[in-house]
Backbone:
């Protein structure tokens, strides 16, 4: 025994590299030519050798597995049987290559029966499109593992099988994951490539729009498909097919249910149902009352019953987001090209297949030409023998033995050994006149065939024409319609799709805590009651901002430094009435020295709407709302401020609207928001003077009046009906200016009693205070159909109807709207808009009835109502 010193590093590197290449080439990656891995190729070839074609009886799978193991594949029987089973599963292969008889598993991941129970045979497509002409020297053969037999290195595939059924595998340091496609689309793509080798990817995608999964379902968007077809890598989003239906019990509609009829490719149905049930039990999925599987041999049907108060579309979106009902197929089109792994795009993959078909047709034509020439060579010998029959018969009769006769034939008539052997083996019946004519005709036919075959080999266009004819035949015989629907809408499912657009209340305290609550938390109460606690407030904390909006709205936060921040309303954490909320600094990048002074909710950023901003120092300006459509994460400058000034109020308005501003001493000024009084300015500007204040007075409120109210005021003023009297107030039909004081007094004043003035004036008296040390805290425009929500410094919230508050003149003292403790005061006031019951779908697919029942506003909120207010420090 000799010992050879070897460097361990080099030995490990060499050995591991050999192992890696063996796995890559011999196990894990398919060949781009026939789309098969070695185990699949060996199974199909063994079945072909056993004669298990589509028109023959089934044979036991154990017989096939044994044949494959004994001759070609020296591995475990489980690996071979698993590969055979997969090629027979109609939910795994877009076009199964094997016809299975028995239990071959299910989409519930049920295992197949043992191989001794199941039977199989080849599908007709497999015989016609993968194994046809394999005996015609169309592909290379190599030695089997023991060198005793030969096996094909690839199959003479007539279709792009790699794309038809796809492939997946993990090698060493690389992997492949190719989705299945539609047969008819693939063949149309190859035919188009034949006609135009310079075809663009867009033209190919028009013919092959995307994968076609055996389980159907949907593909969302085409960007992932385009990436995969361009680079070989991409992510395709798959989504199951689900519909919302109303189940009937005892002949009447009972409740809504989500019916799932198709699942994404490779999704385990039983595991998905189990996952949904677990998430429901863990309260991670809301609105589901029951789940059952009603699938049968006619198709899939998963029924998910919903609770009566559930939003079907929201529940379905959550199923898409959190369960395998929607997932991604990571495309990685890696395959072997001439024994080397290559990442292939769609066109390159079709080109590799087409080049292989050209090679296959060329080899088959050469094989047929060789056979035809050999046969014609024999026939030529027959014809020579027939012309000299008597002499040849005499020569054979006088020859001592067969070798002598053969040699004399060769030397006397110039025959080859092959021709001489054929003449010696000729039967006497071939000497008849009829047989002679047949030989002559066969010779002439062969000469014509040889000429045609030589022409095929000489002209590539003839080969491409043959390929096209074969493809068209397979397409016409086997192609079937697409199962997977490609949704052209490339919008991704975002968080907003999972949230019901309910009407909510958002509160911000002086210490910077924020929370969101449904409006339905506070039922309407009678006037002058104490109300409910809306937040657990610290001893020295109080409610500062209080707005009503909808979950899908953009909530804009404006700081005293004139910086704007933005959140979606649903992103504000929801809390109970007793909850304190979360620090707003956890949600927005607000510096410690900065304070939120105004909060505003908007549905969208348009060019014809403006943000009207008012500072504590009395400067006002309007800036187009569209200028705030892209607020950065760290905020956006909204206004330029003088030293010591603060941005305090921001409202939404139009040029045709008017502005009502109130002061702490009960004064109010009303002027138009048109360009004459208030021209539009950019974001980093200061604005103009809004109101002239007396000593000790300060601004406390601003509201924007819609154009129809402004026009009504102007008409009343023109008619001289602006007298501040109880009679004018009593005859008013609204809208009104709601006036609320810190001590809980309030009234409704007709808007017409606040005549239009010029900007920067002193204004009019809005209220005569009844109580000492009282002050004005809110001045906003309301309608009779709305409700009022008031918040105190101690966090007490009361909700009452607007029409419960008396209508009085500007000089009246008002009535008590909320009872307050001695150390408490009104901090903020907001109007809750009336929700319209319109029988139409909103943006989330919820109809008007759903809006009325659940508070989902959509577009039903009256666009001209101000819904937020805040108090001064």
Residues:
């Amino acid at each position: 025994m000799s010992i050879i010193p070897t460097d361990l590093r080099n030995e490990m590197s060499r050995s591991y590299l050999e192992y890696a290449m063996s796995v890559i080439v011999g196990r894990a990656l398919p060949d781009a030519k026939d789309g098969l891995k070695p185990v699949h190729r060996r199974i199909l070839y063994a079945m072909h050798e056993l004669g298990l074609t589509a028109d023959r009886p089934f044979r036991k799978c154990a017989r096939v597995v044994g044949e494959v193991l004994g001759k070609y594949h020296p591995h475990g029987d489980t690996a071979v049987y698993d590969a055979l089973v997969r090629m027979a599963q109609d939910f795994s292969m877009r076009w199964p290559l094997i016809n299975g008889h028995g239990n071959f598993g299910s989409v519930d991941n049920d295992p197949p029966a043992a191989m001794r129970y199941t039977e199989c045979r080849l599908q007709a497509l497999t015989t016609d499109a993968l194994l046809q002409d394999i005996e015609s020297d169309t592909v290379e053969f190599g030695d089997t593992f023991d060198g005793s037999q030969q096996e094909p290195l690839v199959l003479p595939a007539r279709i792009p099988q790699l794309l038809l059924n796809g492939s997946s595998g993990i090698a060493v340091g690389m992997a492949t994951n190719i989705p299945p496609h539609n047969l008819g689309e693939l063949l149309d793509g190859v035919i188009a490539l034949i006609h135009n080798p310079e075809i663009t990817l867009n033209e190919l995608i028009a013919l092959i729009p995307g994968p076609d999964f055996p389980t159907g379902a949907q593909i969302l968007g085409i960007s992932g498909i385009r990436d995969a077809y361009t680079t070989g890598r991409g992510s395709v989003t798959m989504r199951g097919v689900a519909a919302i239906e109303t189940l009937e019990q005892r002949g009447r509609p009972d409740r809504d249910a989500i019916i799932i009829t198709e699942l994404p490719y490779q999704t385990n149905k039983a595991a998905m149902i189990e996952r949904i049930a677990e998430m429901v039990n863990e309260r991670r999925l809301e609105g589901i009352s029951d789940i059952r599987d009603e699938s049968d041999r006619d198709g899939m049907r998963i029924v998910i019953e919903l609770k009566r108060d559930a939003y079907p579309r929201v529940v379905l979106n959550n199923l898409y987001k959190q369960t395998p009902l929607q997932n991604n197929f990571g495309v990685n089109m890696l395959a072997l090209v001439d024994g080397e792994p290559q990442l292939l795009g769609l066109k390159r993959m079709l080109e590799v297949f087409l080049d292989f078909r050209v090679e296959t047709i060329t080899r088959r034509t050469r094989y047929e030409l060789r056979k035809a020439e050999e046969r014609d060579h024999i026939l030529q010998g027959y014809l020579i023998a027939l012309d000299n029959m008597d002499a040849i018969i005499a020569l054979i009769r006088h020859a001592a033995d067969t070798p002598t006769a053969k040699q004399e034939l060769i030397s006397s008539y110039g025959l080859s050994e092959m021709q001489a052997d054929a003449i010696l083996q000729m039967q006497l019946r071939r000497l008849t006149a009829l047989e002679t004519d047949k030989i002559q005709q066969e010779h002439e036919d062969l000469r014509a065939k040889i000429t045609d075959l030589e022409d095929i080999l000489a002209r590539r266009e003839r080969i491409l024409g043959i390929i096209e004819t074969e493809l068209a035949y397979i397409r016409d015989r086997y192609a079937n319609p697409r199962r997977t629907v490609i949704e052209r809408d490339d919008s991704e499912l975002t968080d907003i799709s999972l949230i019901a657009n309910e009407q909510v209340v958002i509160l911000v305290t002086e210490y910077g805590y924020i929370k969101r609550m449904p409006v339905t938390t506070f039922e309407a109460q009678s006037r002058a009651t104490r109300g409910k606690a809306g937040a657990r407030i610290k001893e020295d904390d109080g409610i500062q901002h209080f707005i009503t909006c909808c979950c899908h709205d953009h909530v804009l936060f404006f700081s005293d430094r004139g910086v704007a921040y933005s959140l979606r309303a649903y992103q504000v954490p929801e809390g109970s009435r007793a909850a304190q909320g979360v620090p707003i600094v956890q949600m927005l990048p607000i510096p410690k020295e900065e304070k939120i002074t105004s909060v505003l909710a908007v549905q969208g950023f348009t060019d014809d709407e403006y943000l009207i901003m008012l500072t504590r120092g009395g400067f006002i300006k309007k800036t187009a709302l569209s200028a705030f459509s892209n607020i950065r994460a760290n905020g956006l400058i909204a206004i330029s401020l003088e030293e010591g000034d603060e941005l305090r109020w921001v409202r939404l308005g139009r040029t045709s609207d008017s502005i009502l501003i109130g002061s702490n001493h009960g004064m109010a000024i009303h002027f138009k928001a048109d360009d004459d009084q208030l021209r539009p300015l950019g974001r980093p500007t200061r604005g103009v003077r809004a109101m002239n204040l007396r000593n000790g007075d300060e601004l406390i409120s601003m509201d924007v009046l819609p154009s129809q109210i402004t026009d009504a005021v102007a008409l009343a003023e023109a008619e001289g009906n602006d007298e501040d009297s109880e009679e004018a107030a009593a005859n008013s039909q609204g809208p009104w200016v709601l006036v609320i004081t810190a001590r809980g007094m309030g009234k409704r004043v007709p808007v017409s009693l606040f005549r239009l003035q010029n900007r920067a004036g002193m204004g009019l008296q809005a209220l005569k205070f009844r109580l000492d040390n009282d002050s004005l805290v809110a001045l906003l425009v309301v309608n009779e159909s709305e409700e009022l929500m008031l918040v105190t410094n101690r966090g007490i919230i009361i909700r009452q109807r607007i029409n419960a508050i008396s209508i009085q003149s500007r000089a009246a003292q008002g009535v008590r709207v909320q009872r307050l403790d001695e150390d408490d005061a009104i901090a903020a006031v907001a109007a809750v808009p009336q929700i319209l019951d319109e029988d139409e779908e909103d943006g989330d697919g919820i109809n008007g009835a759903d809006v009325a029942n659940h508070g989902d506003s959509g577009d039903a909120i009256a666009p001209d109502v101000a819904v937020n207010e805040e108090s001064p420090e």
In short: The radius of gyration is 43 Å. The domain at 241-324 is CATH 3.30.1360.40 (Gyrase A; domain 2). Confidence is low (pLDDT under 50) at residues 835-873. Residues 346-387 form the longest helix (42 residues).
